[in-house]
Automatic annotation (TrEMBL):
Involved in allosteric regulation of aspartate carbamoyltransferase. Residues 101-125 form the Aspartate carbamoyltransferase regulatory subunit C-terminal domain. One of its GO terms (biological process) is pyrimidine nucleotide biosynthetic process. Residues 5-96 form the Aspartate carbamoyltransferase regulatory subunit N-terminal domain. Belongs to the PyrI family. One of its GO terms (molecular function) is transferase activity. Signal peptide: none annotated. This is Aspartate carbamoyltransferase regulatory chain. The gene is pyrI. It comes from the Archaea. InterPro entries: Asp_carbamoyltransf_reg_N, Asp_carbamoylTrfase_reg, Asp_carbamoyltrfase_reg_C, Asp_carbatrfase_reg_C_sf, Asp_carbatrfase_reg_N_sf.
Length: 125
């Protein structure tokens, strides 16, 4: 069986151990769309000893922000972030869901004040 080898990135972010099928959602969280100038590699449904199946996203030239980490933790709480500099993992850590989620989710109650456009209130869970 042949293996497809994805090259290492010089500088950027690798998000590993993403729940299978969630890589496209991670790209949406990172605001990466077709036509981006960034080099992006994505693997979906990759065999994993720990998870059975997983997704992986590599983004050359982009370092993930805390706000994005919190969103990724909500959809894939087992994700691992690798920050790469000069082809070496400079920092590796697991995401942790935030204790409070603010202005990320929409309240399901249509009468909630956070859903009223005239009110400057953010949804907070």
């Amino acid at each position: 069986m042949k293996e497809l080898v994805v090259s290492k990135i010089r500088e950027g972010t690798v998000i590993d151990h993403i729940s299978a099928g969630k890589a496209l959602l991670v790209l949406r969280i990172l605001k990466i769309q077709p036509g981006t100038a960034l080099t992006v590699s994505m693997a979906m449904n990759v065999p994993s000893k720990k998870m059975g199946r997983k997704d992986i996203v590599k983004v050359e030239g982009m370092f993930i922000k805390d706000e994005e980490l919190n969103k990724i933790a909500l959809i894939s709480p087992n994700a691992t972030i690798n920050l790469i500099k000069d082809y070496v993992i400079e920092r590796k850590f697991k995401v942790h869901p935030p204790e409070v989620v603010e202005d990320v989710l929409k309240c399901p109650n249509h009468a909630c004040i956070s859903n009223a456009e005239r009110e400057p209130v953010k949804a907070k869970f």
